[in-house]
Amino acid sequence: MGIRRREFLTTSTAVLWALGHAARAADPVGPQLIVDTHQHLWVRDQIDPPWVGGAAGILRLSYGPAEYREATRGLNVRSIYMEIAAAEADLDREAETAIAWCGAKNSTMVGAIIGGRPSSDAFGDYIARHAASKSVQGVRQVLHAGTPPGTCLDPKFVAGMRVLGERGLTFDLCMRPGELLDGAKLAAQCPETRFVIDHCGNADPKAFLKGDVAGKPSHSADDWKRAMERLAALPNTVCKISGLVARAPLVWDAEVLAPVINHCLEVFGPDRVIFGSDWPVCLTRATLQQWVAALREIISSRPAADQEKLWSGNALRMYKLSIT
């Protein structure tokens, strides 16, 4: 379960090299409120997600609230826990752990998106057990990796989405870019449920780069744009500006990420975009603070009111959060 010291040092050296050549903007420190709607935590001797063992070395460590506090030192951050693709047998325990973290003394975690299996016959009971907590804001089941294409259009899955809508809970759509149109069909069938499009639709920034790039993108820029426009046309969708640095080339800067981010901001508009760090997954390319700095650079020319909505205002409104 653990990572060997030599392996960790080797991986860390590569990551630090990447960070040293990555985001050129200075690390940000300031009073601006940031609501991080995509914070992962895993403490492996408590809940060990099945995918972590095969992940990049830096992700095989444990990351809990203390590590997140250190990662956000100097920032005025409140966070929403994002489920970690735990094994199905661990879903209840993961939800209970996240709820407990939200309620801990001096916690900056203000909500949780818990894991779930919407197609399961037991999904309604599962939601009833945990939705009683005001900390639970929504559900996610990752729809890429080993999930068959078309899963989200299965009638039982659609029924699960409607259960969430009835309870005022959201669903995070995290799916392959080539299946985003399925996400649009799902959202159209469930107008009372709000769908959050994770990671800018899992866009690959390399699809927008000119010339030869290492690693062929899984989609074209035009196909992704059209799919995101289809999703944005539905009033019950929101785009999460997150996850891009983990898909960026080894050496990147704000300019590499800007085409994806700017398209999302344009088609979803200033009132339907929220920020997510995707920490600690972002560490494969950048620190959380470098990602924040890069995004600040990209949106710096936009109206201050629109920037505030992205960083915190939209999330506060959407999740009905009260920050003290």
Automatic annotation (TrEMBL):
Domain Amidohydrolase-related positions: 35-321
UniProt family annotation: Belongs to the metallo-dependent hydrolases superfamily.
InterPro entries linked: Amidohydro-rel (IPR006680), Metal_Hydrolase (IPR032466), Metallo-dep_Lactonases (IPR052350)
Keywords: Hydrolase
A Gene Ontology molecular function term of the record: hydrolase activity
UniProt superkingdom: Bacteria
Full protein name: Amidohydrolase
